[in-house]
Amino acid sequence: MTPMSDPSSDVTRTIGLSLGADLCWPACYEQIVDRLNLRVPLGDQTLRFAVERVTVEPFQLTQPCRYDVVLDRLTHWFHTSREWIKKAVIMDGLYVLNNPWSLQSMEKHTSYCAMMKLGMPVPDTWLIPPKQPTEHADVGTTLQRYAKLFDLGEVGNALGYPMFMKPYDGGAWVGVSKIDDEAALRAAYEDSGSRLMHLQKAVDPFDLFVRCIGVGPQIYIVRYDPSAPLHDRYKVDFHFVDGPEWSMLTDTTMTINAFFNWEFNSAEMLRRQGTFHPIDFANACPDFQVTSLHYHFPEMVKNMVRWSLFCAATKRTMPINLDWEPFFAIARKDLPFRERLAAYAAVGRERMEVDRFTEFCHEHLSHLNEVVWEFFGTPQAKGYVLAKVESLFPAHEVERFTEHFWGLIQFWRKTESERMSGTATPGGSDAQTPPGAVES
Ligand SMILES: Nc1ncnc2c1ncn2[C@@H]1O[C@H](COP(=O)(O)OP(=O)(O)OP(=O)(O)O)[C@@H](O)[C@H]1O
Ligand SMILES: [Mg+2]
Q1: Are residues 219 and 194 in the same domain?
Q2: Which domain, by its residues, includes 8?
Q3: Nearest residue to 345 (alpha-carbon basis) of 214, 219, 252, 265
Q4: Same structural domain for residues 291 and 364?
Q5: What SS3 class is residue 256?
Q6: Is residue 162 a contact partner of residue 196, using CB atoms and an 8 Å limit?
Q7: Which of 43, 60, 155, 201 could be a cystine partner for 123, CB 3.0 to 4.6 Å?
Q8: Of 335, 340, 244, 266, residue with least CA distance to 111
Q9: Cα 99 → chain centroid
């Protein structure tokens, strides 16, 4: 027997999926990794890959961890899993997407401050003390001694209308309101209770809204319409930015994600008069549902497969500690902003090992496009779409929406086969509403 075919020389790298309500992407991810049937040579050994779902149970802090990489969807709200992940990173060298400490401590507010410091055009933002003070034995004394009475109307005038009031650490649109005048500002403040709120100047009007979704160094840009119904917010559109804009959005997202060690994150940016303003980019557990992403879903699954296999195969060191100084050193340089941004992104690309990652994909994942294309034509894949639709939609809408999302995925297969056969460049197909799509 040659060492290559000797099963005793096989080493299995195990990827754990730490899941909540996710149904569709994990099922597709498992199928695709299985169908890739990878055998990656490593010295005189051969790496194989297994995917398992992480369970929730009591754990001893010294208990070993069976996973090499965990893709986590729970850290931001489910503390048992978050604390298990932290233990496994520290005690067992687990690699996890995303970094649980960074996710826990870096809220929207920090992300605004940090990216303003790097020179990004984040809209003008104020933080206001909460209407109802936090309960604490010292709160009365503290506020009596130090709280300065302020006129909310003056803050409103200084910032200018329209503006958005939103929690400093928010997500999922909770507590977000658009405010057009002083009366609305006062009413929203009355309603805000003990929540700590930002007031942020609205980018209004804007002519383009994009979400830039990063998985490791891969950045995927989608046009987004926040006013559309949930199933239709991610648009199927091409050519909505030009080359320099695409490069600028990519560099911006790379900078944000590398700065916070977020390997799976989505950055929202709005274009007004030719400038893209980042408005929300602390989203390190972004939407990954087929019912939102539809056409874009297969590419997102592909990006996750590539990056997680790369991390598991190479055992690259997980970036645990944040290191901001290299970014701030660039910020201090007297350079035009676009050059500084390129320099920040170069730090990010180095941290995300773009060259090594690209080489890994060429060497070991050249069949991924084909495998994913075929998989998304199978009844099994359609079954996963159906299961997700059944979990979210009322019974009488299940068939219609399953066909809708499936139709969009088949449209992706059409554009993808053109791309793979070289008759179209990436993102270069003409956008048409595919047959079977639901008009909204
Ligand atoms: N400065 C702004 N200018 C224009 N629109 C804004 C601004 N801030 C927020 N919005 C609108 O409000 C929505 C919700 O705001 P934001 O994304 O900051 O909150 P969120 O709770 O993090 O939402 P999500 O979880 O969907 O990302 C945005 O998608 C956008 O449509
Ligand atoms: Mg948002």
Answers
A1: no
A2: 3-105
A3: 252
A4: yes
A5: helix
A6: no
A7: 201
A8: 266
A9: 13
